[in-house]
Amino acid sequence: MRVRVIFILKNKGAFVPFHHQFLLAQLVKGIIIKGGNEKFRDFSFYNFSGLKGQTKISRNGLHFFSNRVTLVFSCLNKEFVDYFIDELFKISNVEVGNLVLLPESVELENMPEFKDEMKYICISPMVLLKPSFNDNESKRFIPPETDEFSDILFESTILRMEALGTYSNEQLASFSKFQLVPDENYLKKIRENQKKFARIYPVYDQDVKYEVRGYTFPFVLYAAKEVQEFVFSGGMGSFTHKGFGMLDLANTDPSKRTISYRKAVEPK
Questions:
Q1: What is the CATH number of the domain that holds 135?
Q2: Order of strands across the sheet with 55-58?
Q3: Contacts of 6 (CB under 8 A, 6+ apart)
């Protein structure tokens, strides 16, 4: 289940850092804890995007000038999504960086028909390697064209699917087909223009700041339909519950895939 949370921006021109996933992760976790439902207190099988809206870049970060700002929020568990929305709507103003946001409404995305071959784009960076204290391994660059890149993502995906507890051992064993193939033309163009598709990002875990390498590029994923649905709804790679690894379908019009779902103030 994927929804788009729409906020009214109360202070146009305010800004957030270029990468503000850690601020959103703190917000989401705070809302979950504030709700007081112990069932979801340590739940981590969700994913979210960065904030979307009309922006301008400055040395301070991303300045938002649109009337509304959107956050894509996703999870396979509908009960959890509804719980998050309920608790969010209890808050009058939400602060992210310098932005003051008023929760207004939620739109529901229509889920695609999943196939064994799907083309995705990254709307937040994919992280392959989990960090450990005083160790730079998580910042190591791994070429996307290599088997190592695909194998690491396969392992993390299967481990997360197993931890979710809704797939049988027989199902997990049948998900052995998994291959990520990056868009070679995109990578070639990025390299020729001396731009980057892999950067270092901050992530906070247990109050410790780490640095991880995140990758952003289009790719085709060959995997079982159940795996496709899992990564589309729950993200790809590590730290998906901290806003990394959110995917979207390539070559589609996002504006045509939503219906109204909830409003902050329900009509009487």
A1: 3.30.70.1900
A2: 15-16, 61-64, 55-58
A3: 68, 69, 70, 103, 104, 105, 106, 107
76 and 124 within one domain: no
Q: Which domain holds residue 55?
A: 2-111+254-263
Helix ranges (DSSP H) in the chain: 21-35, 78-89, 147-164, 169-174, 184-192, 225-234
Tell me, yes or no, whether 29 and 82 share the same domain. Answer: yes
Tell whether 125 and 107 lie within a shared domain: no
Asked whether residue 188 is assigned to any structural domain, the reply reads yes
Using one digit for the tens of pLDDT, what is the confidence trace for 203-251? Answer: 998 889 999 999 999 999 999 999 999 999 999 999 999 999 999 999 8
Please check whether residue 18 lies inside any domain of the structure. yes
- What pLDDT was estimated at residue 85? 97
Q: 134 pLDDT band (50/70/90 cuts)?
A: confident
Q: What is the pTM of this model?
A: 0.92
Contacts of 167 (CB under 8 A, 6+ apart): 161, 226
